[in-house]
Amino acid sequence: MEKDKGKITLKDVARMAGVSRGTVDRVLHNRGDVSKRSYDNVMRVIKDIGYEPNIYASILAHDQNRSVVLLLPSYHTGEYWEMAARGAEQAKAYARTFNVSIETVLYDQYDIDSFREACIQLLGLSPAAVVLAPVFRNETAVLTAVLRERGIPYSYVDTKLEEDGYLTFYGMPMYKSGYLCAELLFDSIASVPEAADQMKVALIRIERDRNRKSDPTATRREGFFDYMTEHYPDVEIRSVFINPRDPESIVGTLSAFFTANPGITHVAMFNSRIHLIAPALEILRAGDMPRAVGFDNLDGNLAALRRGSIRYLITQHTDEQTRLAVNSLVDYLVLNKEPERRDNYMHMDILSRNNVDDY
Amino acid sequence: MEKDKGKITLKDVARMAGVSRGTVDRVLHNRGDVSKRSYDNVMRVIKDIGYEPNIYASILAHDQNRSVVLLLPSYHTGEYWEMAARGAEQAKAYARTFNVSIETVLYDQYDIDSFREACIQLLGLSPAAVVLAPVFRNETAVLTAVLRERGIPYSYVDTKLEEDGYLTFYGMPMYKSGYLCAELLFDSIASVPEAADQMKVALIRIERDRNRKSDPTATRREGFFDYMTEHYPDVEIRSVFINPRDPESIVGTLSAFFTANPGITHVAMFNSRIHLIAPALEILRAGDMPRAVGFDNLDGNLAALRRGSIRYLITQHTDEQTRLAVNSLVDYLVLNKEPERRDNYMHMDILSRNNVDDY
DNA sequence: ACGGTTTCCGTGCGCGCGCACGGCGAATTG
DNA sequence: CAATTCGCCGTGCGCGCGCACGGAAACCGT
What we know:
Two copies of one chain form a homodimer.
Chain A: H1 10-17, H2 21-28, H3 36-49, H4 55-62, E1 67-73, H5 80-96, E2 101-107, H6 112-124, E3 129-132, H7 137-150, E4 154-158, E5 169-171, H8 174-186, E6 200-206, H9 218-231, E7 236-242, H10 247-260, E8 266-269, H11 278-284, E9 291-295, H12 299-307, E10 312-315, H13 318-335, E11 343-345, E12 349-351
Parallel strand pairs in A: 1-2, 1-3, 3-4, 4-5, 5-11, 6-7, 6-8, 8-9, 9-10
Antiparallel strand pairs in A: 10-12
Helix pairs in contact in A: 1-2, 1-3, 5-13, 8-9, 10-11
Chain B binds a DNA duplex (30 and 30 nucleotides) through residues 7, 9-11, 19-23, 25-26, 28-29, 31, 33-35, 38, 53-63.
């Protein structure tokens, strides 16, 4: 494209503008102490010959110690937010090639005070940029106000607030994911739609979400129901609530449910925890496994997929989201690169037993 | 994690190892002229304190004009290899942050002489690294021999030769992709397997491949047949050959085929060109569209997917493959980073009408 | 005319590393 | 034993830029 041969340097610009390197430098950084005449000269030369600073020399001379801090919900092994942490780990490799370090601050997503503390801790780290998963919306708004005031760029992952101070957002299209879930579930009778009247669906939900007003999967459920209404309006759909904190109880809960609701042929679960019910299905329905579709590539889910107790997983790449969010901030910080898109809805992957291996 | 404050430099290593900067440098680059004693000392210190070179200083001092050259089949808009070129374009962004430029040399994949010429042209560019799509296997072997002799690292995309001089390979698991194709195609009767005896499959193939001994999709077809034998041994499978150079003829060919073979319910195509037959299906089978599954995310294929004339596409991310191959070479050149894996079989994406939007 | 500001500008140093050059002691050779 | 070679090593320069320092005009008031 452009000739890299006779690389144009700041010195060249200085010479061509009839000034010194220092003056060009002052112009480039709007640092004042430059006469209008010199300023114009320099600017003209820069435009004319298309000078671009050498970022390596710049960074080397600068030698800053930037760090990107992630603010995420804490997690146990195998849980949803672990994937985000994994993505952060991957981003580290990229960041460290730019001498940017990555730190993570965790909070309890069910304890607003821990979030407040985490915010204070985060600011104490004096981050060069921040990645947020905004579970507590009001408190997050407070934090981002501070960040904006301090000129610290930040990005959202998973969910975003409706404001426009953020650099990027990486998330999943929730409504569509529910729609897709229904489609995959009922693709099993696509060639014989008249079989629909023998089909019956169980939606597995979390006990705690039953009375929760802000269920994060509500939109997804909406997409699911819309698909069903459009394509299979007469199929029966039942909900059953399990308690994820007490895995022992799940077999019992489902056993009672299947007895009370015979003929369940399809199972769906809208959060990331379908791995919790896979063993129960294997025990209770070994003979005639219902077709099950769930979300997210947790290790437990992938294992169940491989065992055959789950037919499809729809994944949103939480790790990728985090990785890309960090990278966008690093690019912005180091290379002055504006992101291509502010809002990035990630592609949903469909995982089956036969394409999970090279995942 | 590590303290970035007192950044460890090459000079520190030298001091701690009781040698000079030059010696450390020689060790780092395996440049010889170092006594075993000094070598061991330096290596130990490096391990101990976890020294990592500052790439900015490194690149700045280096200031070479390396270029990575891609050797790919030429293409028209909307064809398979265009995706590889697109991936190269994306890699450019990454490469340029390291002052590495990307060049592409194209050849006619049906003309061996053009390949030979391309090889000469490539060597004339004195590349720092090369990415290859080895259509002509024998000639490619000749080229790679030269590259090895000159110490130029290279990577394969799409296909590889069975040798072990390459740095990385990025491709798709072909057998599995065929297996997956069959599964997706017949998932439509998964809940009512007894419907299988009313199903009939058409495999659309390319006229030119009929007598070709090295059909690149042969392995894929094998996976497909294995799945069918295992799960639906009695389903009828018919092949029909079309001429992609004469799109006008396709409707006629398929029309005759459907007449001769009534009751086709499923259609599969193992190369990237299923977009060629989508219009024909829309015309000939508007009333009862067969279920069609194809490969690769060509724009034409995606459009047909959106229109509903294709049910699923299995994609192998040719663009990603190329991008990653280039990146692995850049990392190797600039950062001395060995690739994590030599052979990288890419994940296969399943695309349906409902997850294609954010692709 | 002279001291004191203000405005504007040039120069030198250092960031950490790659590499060429030259040097020094020990081994080898005639 | 002197001359040469060889193995090993240290030093200096430059990559392009940021920034601090100091200095030269120009301007001002007395």
